[in-house]
Amino acid sequence: MGAGKPRPAILQETGNWCNGLAVALAITLRRLLYIGLRRCVQCRVMISTVKTPCIGICSTGIGDTVCRGCKRFSHEVIHWNAYTEDERNAVLSRLEQLLASVVGKRFYIRDKALLKSTMQRQNLVIDEAVNALCWVQGLLRAKASRISALQDYGVGAHAAYRNAPLTQLRDDIERDFDVLSEAHYERYIAPGLDVNKLELITGEK
Q1: b or e along 1-21 (b: 16 or more beta carbons within 10 Å of the residue's beta carbon)?
Q2: pLDDT in tens, 9-58
Q3: In principle, which of 81, 154, 159, 174 could form an S-S bond with 111, CB 3.0–4.6 Å?
Q4: DSSP 6
Q5: Which of 49, 26, 75 is nearest to 196 (CA)?
Q6: Could you report the per-residue pLDDT of 134-166, keeping only the tens digit for each?
């Protein structure tokens, strides 16, 4: 076909159809890319805002079953970001109950509002969703060696512990929190893990 001759109508229609298809595909791909990027950003935001009890002291990486810092179990630390909200809340509830029990053995809250305002003035983190007794351990972790009067923070010590140094009470709370967490693991978690291991090895339930 000569270069100067017009293309047959069928070729022109085919060319127009192909051009239209290419434009439509380009628009669709751009939309899909935009949606994908938005979802990626949303996922990153969701992951970055997952509430975690981590306090920056993790010992599960060196083989501990119970973290010496946050007291979560090693499998909870590993899978935390993949947990559902209900699963995370179940872990947080257990930690709150155990910590409140060991703190409450030694201290009581005289004035919750005073404790809250004083800690906030000193830029100490508090979680208003948990038992205020849990705030006390956060306070002791940060200020035990510098607190001269607990009543200034709205906290009182039970009679048996009033003369004990706050640094010792802080360390005793950490120890008892560890012991209770280990006991919970051995009683409720380890047996289930052993059964799972048996199933993997033998294929029997």
Answers
A1: eeeeeeeeeeeeeeeeeeeee
A2: 555 666 665 676 666 666 766 665 545 544 443 333 334 344 788 888 88
A3: 154
A4: P
A5: 75
A6: 999 999 999 999 999 999 999 999 999 999 999
| pLDDT tens column, 86-109 | 999 999 999 999 999 999 999 999
Kind plus residue range of the DSSP H or E element containing 155:
strand 155-157
| Residue 66 CA to its chain's centroid (Å) | 15
| Residue at token pair 């039970």 | 158
State yes or no: pLDDT of 202 exceeds 70: no
Give phi and psi for 164, each to the nearest 5: -80, 140
Residues facing 157 on adjacent strands: 107
Report the alpha-carbon distance of residue 163 to residue 167 in Å, rounded.
12
DSSP letters spanning 80-145: GGGS-HHHHHHHHHHHHHHHHHHHHTTEEES-HHHHHHHHHHTT----TTS-HHHHHHHHHHHHGG
Listed in sequence order, the residues at least 6 apart from 120 whose beta carbon sits closer than 8 Å to its beta carbon are 126
Token code pair at residue 132: 């205020």
- Count the residues in the chain: 205
